[in-house]
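Exercise 7b. Backbone tokens:
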């Protein structure tokens, strides 16, 4: 099982990783380490993949999955049992509580403070990103944005992410600088969007200047990553962050 470890100057107490397709027992279009229970894969295989990841990575406690809806709600993680929360971000201020988001082209963003006392993970597709999921995650962490580090995990790259003009208009209506993240597509009326650049702009506006990652493209690397845009029915990767005891 291979995963990506963020290359960022996080404190020693912070643990973080982003999975790839490598490992796991899923087959067919889900081949590899599919962690999504909502995509049509066999439930037993998904559970086996999740258990294998937890054991291999040494993730403490139970895994706290979200029902992601491309929104901006942030779930404060705890060990309390209950229904899967409907949210697109999670935060934790205690050791041993993993924040997890699943993606297959959308942008996973991991956050921690420089003191190593709080962490968060956000699922930032274009709707959540434009709607303010990063700003909501920063607010939920309860510390100064300047004290935060951010890491941008694997997402669809700027040469593959084609969007309509309404998407560009939505971002430009809030932040004129977002124009630099869009270039005209070969298809009339369409644009190629750089979701990494859009996230950096939103983070900078919120006061987060220490931003790392952003070098992968899920769409173009089918061996390592699931991609909904590329394949339609496919699996999901997970990006996780937690505080060590």
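Sequence design result:
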């Amino acid at each position: 099982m291979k995963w990506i470890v963020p290359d960022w100057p996080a404190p020693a107490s912070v643990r973080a990783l982003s999975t790839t397709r490598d490992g796991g027992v899923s087959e067919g279009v889900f081949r590899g380490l599919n962690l999504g229970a909502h995509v049509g894969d066999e439930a037993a295989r998904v559970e086996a993949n999740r258990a294998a990841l937890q054991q291999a990575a040494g993730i403490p406690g139970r895994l706290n999955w979200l029902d992601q809806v491309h929104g901006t709600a942030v779930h404060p993680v705890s060990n309390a049992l209950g229904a899967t929360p409907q949210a697109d971000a999670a935060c934790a201020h205690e050791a041993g509580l993993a924040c997890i988001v699943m993606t297959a082209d959308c942008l996973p963003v991991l956050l921690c403070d420089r003191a190593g006392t709080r962490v968060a993970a956000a699922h930032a597709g274009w709707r959540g990103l434009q709607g303010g999921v990063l700003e909501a995650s920063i607010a939920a962490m309860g510390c100064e944005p300047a004290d935060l580090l951010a890491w941008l995990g694997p997402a669809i790259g700027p040469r593959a992410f084609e969007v309509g003009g309404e998407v560009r208009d939505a971002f430009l209506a809030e932040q004129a600088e977002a124009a630099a993240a869009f270039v005209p597509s070969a298809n009339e009326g369409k644009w190629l969007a750089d979701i990494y650049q859009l996230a950096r702009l939103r983070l900078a506006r919120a006061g987060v200047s220490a931003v790392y990652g952003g070098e992968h493209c899920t769409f173009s690397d089918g061996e390592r990553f699931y991609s909904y845009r590329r394949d339609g029915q496919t699996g999901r990767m997970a990006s996780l962050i937690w505080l060590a005891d």
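Instructor comment: The helical segments are 43-57, 126-131, 133-141, 165-174, 195-206, 228-231. The chain has six helices and 13 strands.
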